[in-house]
# Entry
Amino acid sequence: MDNNFLVIENISKSFGDNKVLENINLNISKSEFFGLLGSSGSGKTTLLRILGGFEKPDTGRVILDGTDITNLEPFERPLNYMFQSYALFPHLNVFNNLAFGIKENFTQKEIEINVRNIAELLSIEHLLNRRIKQLSGGEQQRVALGRCLIKKPKLLLLDEPLAALDKKLRSKTQLELTTLQKKLKITFVFVTHDQEEAMSLSDRMAIMKNGLILECSSPEEIYENPKSLYTANFIGIANIIEIYKKDENFYSDDLGINFKLNKELKNTKTNILLRPEKIKIQSMNNLKTSSFNSFSGEILEKSYLGSFTRYEIKIKNMIISVLDQNFNSNSNYNFPKGEKVICIWESESIKVLED
Amino acid sequence: MKNKLFEKYFVFSPYFWLVLFFFIPLAIIFKISISVSEWGMPPYQDIFLFDNGFKINTTFENYVYIFSDYYYIGSFVNSLILALISTFFCLLIGFPLAFYIATSNIRLRNILLVLVVIPFWSSFLLRVYAWKIILQNNGILNVILLNLGITSEPLQLLYNQYAVIMGIVYTYLPLMILPLYGYLNKFDLNLIEASKDLGLNRIKTFFKVILPLSVPGIVAGSLLVFIPVVGEFIIPEMLGGSDRLYYGKILWEEFFVNRNWPGASALAFSGIIILVLPIVIFQILYSRWSQKNEI
# Structure
C-alpha cells in the first residue's frame, strides 16, 4: 500500500498568539479511512481546513499523490470538503446542488448522467427536484456527500460528518459511509469529537490535543494499548491506577493491593490502565482470594445496560468501573447493590501508561 | 379581550400611518390636480360649487397640459435616468462595502457601521453645501490639482450632471449599505467556501452563489435609493447646472414660481402613479418569486 498518498509535513499554525497546530506530521495511505479525534480546541478542524485550502499553514507542506498542494487555492485542489453544516446552496434544487461542481466541464447530457449515477449510488433519485429546505437532515447529508463525490476527488475531507444527525440515523449512516468508502476506494479524512464515531469509522485514527498529535494508530491498538493517560481516558471507560515499586512487586495505595506485571518498568512509579470489561466479577463464596491481580470490594452503583451491566465497585479509596456481560437471561444473575464481590483479571490486561 | 383589541390595533397601526401620511395627502393632491386654476389664495377653485345649485367643477386640463409638453415629460425621464445611474453606482460601491462590513469581526464591524451612519448626524444641506466648496473653481480640489500641475486652469467640476450624480451617490450610499448589510450579515460564509471547494474561482463564486443569494438585499437597497432620488430637488438645485432639468426642480417652479397649484399637483400625482404602480407590481411578482425559490 502506498503509505505516502497524503503527506502532512511539519504543519504549524497560529491565530495571533494562539498556537493552534504545532509541527504536525502524518502519512495517510491511499483508500484509507482516517479519523482525526479530539475535543474542541484540539486543532483538528484547523488541520482539516488546511488540507481543504481554506487556511494557509505558517510552516510545513501538504503533499497529495506526489504533488505539493500547500499553496493551491481550494478550487485548484483535487479534493473535496464536506462541511459540518453541509453548506448546501439554498437557491438551487438538489439536482443543481449535485451538478454545481461539474457544470463547467461537462455537457448537459454528461451532467444528467453523472447526477443520475451519483443519486442512484446514494439512493436520492426521488429527491432531485426538491429544494434544500424540503429535505431532512439525513437527506441533506447525502446531497452534501453526493455533491463532493460527483467530482471524483482523490481525497474527501469530512468535518463532523454525522454530528448533525440524530442518534438512530447516525449509526445507520456510519455503516453506509464505511461501505461507500470501501466501494469507491477514495481516501477519506474526517474530523470528530465523538470517540465512538472515530472508532467505528476509522481504519486508523489520530488523537489530537492542544495542537499536537498524541497517538496515531488503529482503533483497536489505541483502545487496547494507549500510550498516554489522556488517550486512555478519552477513549472508552478507563480505570487508571497509580502504582509504585515495592519490594519485588507493584503496590497501589488507593486499592491497597499488589500488582504483578509481565514486563519490567523503567520508572518506580507509574499509571496503569485496566479496562472495565477486562475485569471479571464473582461472588465472595465462589473463590479463594489470591493476593495478586484481584481485589474484593462492595458494589456501590449498578446500571443495567441491556447487553452489559455496569458496576461501580468501591475498594478502599477508589471506585473501579466494571462492565459485566449479561450471559444469562436470568434477571437474578446481576449482583445487587451493597454486595461484597471479588474482582479478578489477567495480568496481560494491565496496560502501563507512559505519561 | 382587552389584549385582543390591543393586538388588533397594533397590527393595523402601520395602516393608520399609511392612511394618515400617504393616502390622505395623496387624495388632497389629486383633488387640487383636477380643479380649475384661478388668481387668488388658494390659486384654484373648489371642485364642489353650491352657489346656483350643486355643481361639480373639475377639469383634466392640467393633465392634458403636462402630458402634451415635453418639458414636463422630459424632466421626468431625466430624473428616472439620474435615479437609475445613481442607484447603479450606489450598488457598485455599496455592495463590496456592505459585504466587507458583514464579514469582518465584530469590533471592526461596529466601527464601520458607525462610520456609515455618522454623516446622518450632520445636516443634509450642510453636507451638500460642503461639496460645493470642494468642487467650485477656487475650491480645495481645484487648488490641489493646480498646485500639483495636473491642470493649468481650474476644471469646471460644479454645476453639471456629474456633480449631481456624485452628490446623490454620496448622500444616498448609507441607504444602500444598511439594508444590504442587514441581509449579508446572515450570509453563511461556508457557502462561499463550498463553492470554491467545488472548483469555482472567486469571480464565478460571486456570480453563482453570492449574487443570487443577495437579491433581496439588493432589491431593498435599490428601492430605498431609487424612489427618493426620482423626486430629489436640493442636490440638483445646488450642484447641478442648467444643462439638465429634473422633475423635482420643475415641480418646485410650477408650484412656487408659476403658482400653478393644479398643474403642479397633476405633475406630482402622475409622478407618484408612474413610479409606485410598477414598483407595487414588481414587489408582488418578486415576493411570489422569492417564495417559490425560498430565498
About this structure: Chain A has two domains: 6-233, 237-353.
